[in-house]
Every structure is written in structure tokens, then in C-alpha cells.
Design goal:
The chain has 309 residues and is of the alpha/beta class. Helix content is 56%, strand content 9%. The chain folds into two domains: 228 residues, 3-Layer(aba) Sandwich (Rossmann fold), CATH 3.40.50; 64 residues, Orthogonal Bundle (Histone, subunit A), CATH 1.10.20.140. It has a six-stranded parallel β-sheet with strand order 3-2-4-1-5-6, sandwiched between helices.
């Protein structure tokens, strides 16, 4: 156990932000956000940033670090995260990292997977083949050359199927070989707490959060972002909550339909997060009951950190 470097992970709306704040307060720690959308300034409501009163009490890192017009990558995240960790360690403070962006979490735990760069010619050929012959033909190819990767990828996921075949065509090696190399460098620095809830309870929490966002003024927030001189980056525009409201404001869907679509897409995100998190090793799972209070969750987390049962 490393009581000075704690990582709390969980799907969206699982309560990880509240637990991180309470734990950091009890330890005198600083918080590192692991979230691909909380990095954007003025994208507050739709990204569920921690309230100002929390941020006034405890230093938060990697929140509000770029403009909504900027792109942001996992490599940039890792660079800033490493800088923040070094900065916090200089002050001899514990670190509580918290988030749900699985690729960012994986980069922090295991390092950045440096597979080969993209080859647009090969990628375009594979896309054309998928269009002409069907994605299932590409998936069958992948099952032949890299069964380990095919087992992890949905047969209906064109982006990941094409990327896996692209890597093989570029290198002659399956993408799983690169990923095994990545996993072998797993960091032992972090004590990882994984929050889990029943799926039905999680869906209720997601629905309640989306309603709260709409009531808090998400539509106005998106209007203000669209009115800024520089257009939103592709990444910012595609964020769940923002993409649907942009469609509403352009007259494509009603606000009620946009709201329901945000709920649906957030549930899909939670499902993808659960799948990712199952691949992480050495996670101390914390199964939360619907009526469990933040104080109770904190007490159980402290027992894990103290190596108690």
C-alpha cells in the first residue's frame, strides 16, 4: 500500500469525485483530475466539475488547463500529470488522483502505449474494404491474425478493428504484442480504489445527474461557448452533453430528446468504462450500496488504506 499516492476510479456519476474530496481533505492531499473534458475552461456544468467551494479548500490539478478551441491528447495529459505529481511531491503532500477517462488512467498507471503512427493510405484502404465487403470481413481477418485483440473488440467497432489491422499491416506484429509490452511496465506506485455500483442504481444516478445539469443551465453554457470567437474543437464539440445540446440548438432535436439522448449516451459511456476497468490490475474494489453515505464510503476507503478488513 502506498498511502501517499491513491487513485480512485469509477464510472461516470459513481460518486468518485465526492469520495476523492473527502479523502484528500482527511489526508491533507492534493487532487489530480483524470478527465478528458474537465481540462476545458468554461465547460463546467456538462463536465460535472467539482464545485468552487471544494476547489477553494483543496488544490486541484488538470482542471481548466486549455481553451475549448484547443485539442487535447493523452500524451499531453500524461505530460501535465507527471509535472503535477512532481510538484505535489516537492511539498511532501499525498496525492489523490480521480477520474473515469480510462485511456488517461491507463497511461498514468502503465505509461503511454507507443504503437506505430497512423498511415492514412492503409487506413483509407481498410475503410473502403469495410464499405465494400462489410465490417464483418475485416473482423474475421482480425480474428485470424490477432485473436487476443479480436476477443476484446466488438465486431461492431470499426475504429478499433481498422486500427488493429493497420498496426499489423505496418509492423507485421499484432497490436496485442505492443499492448503486452505496455502492460509489463505497470506502475507499482499507486494504491487503486475502484468504486462499483449495481447497474440499475448507476443508471438512476446518471439520469438524476443529467436532469441536474439541464436545470443548472447546460443549454445556456453551450450557447455561450458557441458564441465565442474561436470555434469549439472537435473534441469539445463531441463531448457527451455538449454534442446533444448543440444538435438541439441547431434545431435538429427537441430539448427533451436531447436530454434523453444525453442519458442514453452517458449510460453507454459507463458500460465502456466498466469494460476498461476490468483490465486494470491490483484494484481494491469498493461495492457501494444505494443508501451508503459519503462518510461511510470514506471510512471503508480508509480501512483499505490502513490494510484493515
Amino acid at each position: 500500500m502506498n498511502p501517499k499516492m491513491i487513485l480512485i476510479l469509477g464510472v461516470t456519476a459513481s460518486g468518485k469525485g465526492k469520495l476523492a474530496f473527502a479523502l484528500a481533505k482527511s489526508l491533507g492531499a492534493e487532487i489530480i483530475s483524470i478527465d478528458s473534458m474537465k481540462v476545458y475552461r468554461r465547460m463546467d456544468i456538462g463536465t460535472a466539475k467539482p464545485p468552487k467551494e471544494n476547489r477553494d479548500q483543496i488544490p486541484y490539478h488538470l482542471i481548466d488547463v486549455v481553451e475549448p478551441s484547443d485539442s487535447f491528447s493523452v500524451a499531453r495529459f500524461l505530460e501535465l500529470a507527471i509535472e503535477s505529481i512532481a510538484d505535489i511531491k516537492k511539498r511532501n503532500k499525498p496525492i489523490v488522483a480521480v477520474g473515469g477517462t480510462a485511456l488517461y488512467i491507463k497511461s498514468l498507471l502503465y505509461g503511454l502505449f507507443e504503437g506505430p503512427g497512423a498511415d492514412e493510405r492503409i487506413r483509407d484502404e481498410l475503410k473502403a474494404q469495410a464499405q465494400a465487403e462489410g465490417l464483418d470481413k475485416l473482423y474475421e481477418q482480425l480474428k485470424t491474425i490477432d485473436p487476443a485483440t479480436a476477443a476484446k473488440i466488438s465486431a461492431n467497432d470499426p475504429r478499433r478493428i481498422i486500427r488493429a489491422l493497420e498496426v499489423y499491416k505496418l509492423t507485421g506484429k499484432p497490436i496485442s504484442a505492443f499492448q503486452q509490452q505496455w502492460d509489463a511496465n505497470a506502475s507499482q506506485d499507486w494504491t487503486i480504489i475502484g468504486l462499483r455500483r449495481e447497474k440499475t442504481e448507476e443508471s438512476k444516478r446518471i439520469n438524476a445527474r443529467v436532469k441536474k445539469m439541464i436545470d443548472a443551465g447546460l443549454v445556456d453554457e453551450v450557447k455561450q461557448l458557441l458564441a465565442e470567437p474561436k470555434p469549439l474543437s472537435k473534441q469539445a464539440r463531441s463531448a457527451i452533453g455538449y454534442a446533444e445540446i448543440i444538435n438541439h440548438l441547431s434545431g435538429q432535436i427537441t430539448l427533451d430528446d436531447a436530454t434523453e439522448l444525453i442519458k442514453k449516451n452517458t449510460r453507454k459511456l459507463a458500460k465502456a468504462q466498466r469494460t476498461w476497468f476490468k483490465t486494470f490490475k491490483n484494484v481494491h474494489s469498493l461495492d457501494l450500496a444505494p443508501d451508503e453515505t459519503p462518510d461511510q464510503a470514506l471510512a471503508r476507503t480508509q480501512r483499505i488504506l490502513n490494510n484493515e478488513t
